[in-house]
Amino acid sequence: ELKPLNCYFCASQSLRPQHLAVIRRHTFQLHNRICLCDALLIPLLQERDKRAKWHGIPKLLQKLHESSHPNSDLSQTHSLLKELSSLLSMEAMSFVTEDRKSAQESTFPNTYTFDLFGGVDLLVEILMRPTLTMKKKKPKMNDDFIKDCLSVLYNCCICTEGVTKSLAARNDFVLFLFTLMRNKTTFLQTATLIEDILGVKKEIIQLEGIPNLSRLVQSFDQQQLANFCRILSVTISEPDLGNDDKHTLLAKNAQQKRNASPSRAEVNQVTLLNIPGFIERLCKLATRKVSEATGASDVLQELEDWYTWLDNALVLDALMQMATEEAEPSSTESDESLQATSPLRHRLPQSMKIVHEIMYKVEVLYVLCVLLMGRQRNQVHKMLADFRLIPGLNNLFDSLIWRKFTSSNHVVHGQNENCDCSPEISFKIQFLRLLQSFSDHHENKYLLLNNNELNELSAISLKANIPEVEALVNTDRSLVCDGKKGLLTRLLIVMRREPPDSSFRFWQARAVESFLRGATSYADQMFLLKRGLLEHILFCVVDSGCKSRDVLQSYFDLLGELMKFNMDAFKRFNKYVSTGDKFQTFMSQINSSLVDSNMLVRCIVLSLDRFESQTDDLNVVEVLSECCLLSFMARVENRLAFLFRLINIINVQTLTQENVSCLNTSLVVLMLARRRGKLPLYLNALREKEYTEKYPGCLLNNFLNLLRFWQRHYLNKDKDSTCLENSSCIPFSYWKETVSVLLDSDRTSPCAIASYIDEPFMDLDRDLLED
């Protein structure tokens, strides 16, 4: 038995199990009380070192420990750390350049050995040692030494499986790392390590637990604040459990019942909003021009730090390629002009500066977007409006956001090996997501226009002899966009120029659709129709050969909002889809996936019902008689065919945020039928369809279960029902009343679903709805 010495490796009177396993496996059986510092073990370790190719790492760790006692000046410790770092850095570089393959012991033996013999724990202990002393005057470490410690820890995180998780489990160390961010010299290394650790942490860290958080954030310069947003994005976003739309509503509702109190992410959002000046500084970061950003020398210095820091190193590949392409001379240029326009002297710094600024803005826009979608949405909205975020972005649109000559093929690999997004692609998508969140069901959406465009909306309302929308009247014109075009108009221009296979089409359509969401505004629709939006969408759906389901869904949703209750829109539609072949192509796209197109179907049904009640207007009569789309939907058999398919493609177990609209669209069809006294006709048709398909009771029982779920889901006190009311112009009270009538257990009621299900087939699968 070897008596343990009082040193780091055996401070707990036992060696880490994995160390013991290695020594037992490769040397001889030992009692679990051993110590790497013991003189008897050194020869054994040295002998084994040669055969196992440990490259002297255990011995170096022993020396590192001995030289790092509390009263040492750490100069020797730093030299030893640099020697260790040189053994690990090449493995980390190899790991990053190979797209972060899964860590394996055989692939990165030095990093594995370093962790195996306690190197990670030793560096953590050294870094945190000043916090453990009782002395008033805390010992101060050299900044370069701290940077190298952080660098080695990060190398271990990316190369050795489990290191990041073990660090994430130490809350004391995670909170300690935030204190290192006060020092600008060590900020970038600290921020990158924290981001990696928080990315694997099981629970979201509570920002309010960080010592002096408000003072820390206020001490950051704008560059530090932008990088800090990378960390904040992890702390204010709900844990990613996959595609949100794919989680069933049953599971989500059950989760909400279990967690009635605000989540940690929501609490962190409130914490950030309470930091004085935080949102204002983010708005300034998001809207500042490249010329206002850091000087070229600072940019180059930070990019050099990134290169050393590995995780962001590949951004230089894109920057160098971009600079080379920009600086390619024409054949007529002389040698002198070549020297004068050297990329290193002129073009490279500017290219770096632009992409550098874009990468900052991506992080900032993401944080603002998350806050806009949180519980404090109205508070955030007011702050973004007051700090003129939208006018600022409008001023950057042509020069930075949607530059004419962008190199979108420059790929920068992120941590996800399946993601090949350049900084500019990420920037554009984040910008479009922000516009979508900003406009969606909020009166501030009119800030996306300039004064002339607001006047145009007023003129449209005046000409149509309808009152102006209250939100338009109340818009503070000092906060709207400047210049000849507002942000929405600029977006429409680039949207029409986008290539058919562009990945931006989906996000552009979503952003424009969000402007139309809410209570239907004729003036808003006409503003967009006059700019050729409807024809552009129809071209994409009918003539461009678009196959993307996501893009088609976004176009169908946008068409639904653009055409709803608008006779001019249906006239324009009929003019574009002027042949039978085009109309059949359009209907084929609709029928190919009702989950994607049901919002447009809902729009057509609602518009048809509205127009049929206005037949004293000759213009309406003309539209009803000439529009092929309205004529198609006017036939009861076609509406019933849609109704049957809408009910048949969903059930309670598969309902998600994405397809629940199918249930609401089927309800709209039945509510309109009930208004006209035709509900029994529709229910009987569904019953006949069941028997024709030889599945009696299946369809109607499925619909019963769906409606029971609807009551639980939408009658919840926390559920906002205004969206249903605004999108349909049907009072929510009528929605509730119709569902109650359909669910009536009285089998003699002609409007109750139960009346159309034969007794032997009643309540099939009802237990599936039970929690």
Category from helices, strands and their pairing: mainly alpha
| Rg on CA atoms, Å | 32 Å
User: For the report, how would you describe the main beta sheet?
Assistant: none
The rounded distance between the terminal residues' Cα atoms is 59 Å
* Count of helix runs: 40
**Global geometry:** elongated
Low-confidence stretches: 1-37, 242-246, 306-348, 405-420
Estimate percent helicity: 55-70%
| Mean pLDDT level | 82
Number of strands: 0
Strand content: under 5%
GO molecular function, one term: phosphatase binding
GO biological process, one term: ubiquitin-dependent protein catabolic process
Pfam families: DUF3689
Protein name: Transient receptor potential cation channel, subfamily C, member 4 associated protein a
Structural features, described:
One of its GO terms (biological process) is ubiquitin-dependent protein catabolic process. This protein has 771 residues and is mostly helical. Among the domains are: 21-96 and 107-161, no CATH class; 277-290 and 350-403 and 422-528; 532-634, no CATH class. Helix content is 64%, strand content 0%. The chain is built from 40 helices and no strands. Helix 32 (594-612) packs parallel to helix 36 (660-675). The longest helix is centred in the middle third of the chain and has 30 residues, at 343-372.
Descriptive terms for the model:
40 helices; disordered N terminus; elongated; 771 residues; mainly alpha
